[in-house]
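Morning F.,

Quick status update on the modeling queue. The single chain you submitted on Monday has been processed. Sequence for confirmation:
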Amino acid sequence: MLTQDYVTAASIKSRLARPPGLAVITMTQQRLKFYNRAPPNGLVLFVGTFLTDEGREKKAIYEFEPHKPIRTFFYLCDNKFHTEALSELLELDARFGFIVIVGNGTLFGTLADNTHEVIHEFAVDHPKHDRGGDSALRQDDYMRKIAEHAMEHFITNDKVNVTGFVLAGTADFKTALGHSDMFDLRLSAKILAVVDVSYSGENGFSQAIELTTELLANAESVLENKLIQRCLEEIGQDTGRCCFGIEKSLKALELGAIETLIVWENLDIIRYTMRNAAGEEIIVHSNKQQEDNREKFLDDSIGLEMEQASEPQSLLEWFAEKSEDLNLEFVSDHSQERTQFVKEFGGIAALLRYKVDFAKLASTADKHDEVV
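Structure tokens below.
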């Protein structure tokens, strides 16, 4: 292929176009000589020439093995590098957890990129004849053991390491786990489905995958709706375990009270860091509609606008930077519940670890200001 292209390039009549074309093909051939075979994940090779600002010609070679297999063969000569084939490699693969529970044992597995893997399996031996009290105690012990293994395998660095869960099994074990206080709340929030299977072990695992194929394709939408529904339930029941709006959500973040921060993926709020006359940094949040209203940028002590201490930053970006220390979930507005979330809650809400009395906090702050 390259040899044929070299012959074609050699026949180019233009003296300006012919040398660069030949040079690029020659460089490509030279680089490929270093490989007896393609690397396990494939090979990406960009070769070209370009003019610098000073008008000098410069050669460019970018060569690497992708971090995961690339399934596309793509060869093209053009006036630019084409990176379209690499786009799918940048997408995060959805990874789902499966817990298959039957009376004599439990299997823990994952499904990612159409590949399923058993990560742990254990068996239990229940006596055939058990007293009522002993039976209930044994079931509690069984549920506790399942819950402990679930935390061990599906929580890493205090965060759930799968997109969502499927609980599968026979009888009522699977349902009991989902409603058990022993099952970590972070995991239960990610339950996508509870399904009946006829088999134990790997056969039950395979059957659970078959039964949930269509559901898993829409997992992101299902989980987003579950988050919004939980938030609405907390507000409806007045538990104090959910707050919404920028001011309260940021206050909860400051207190370390947030279990999950829910943010609309198209939130257009900008975070400004300003400096007042006393040299103090003041954070101001404003969307595009509010930018013309400069009152919030005024320094009340002198009646002038504060100076900008640093470059404005998208609040979404600011949240993303804190995502290592924060369970951050982005949602779209592609359903009735999520549209309601954007319109009524302003596109930001937080599920809290504990009840926070924002009215009391505001009152305390006001009293402090009066004393000062």
